[in-house]
Amino acid sequence: MKIDCERLRAALLSEPGEGDGVREDWTAGLEMTPAAVLVPIVLRDEGDTVLMTRRAAHLRDHPGQVSFPGGRVDADDPSPLYTALREAREEIGLTDDRVSLLGYLPEYRTGTGFRITPVVARVFPPFDLRTDPLEVEEVFEVP
Question: pTM score > 0.85 for this model?
Answer without folding.
Answer: yes
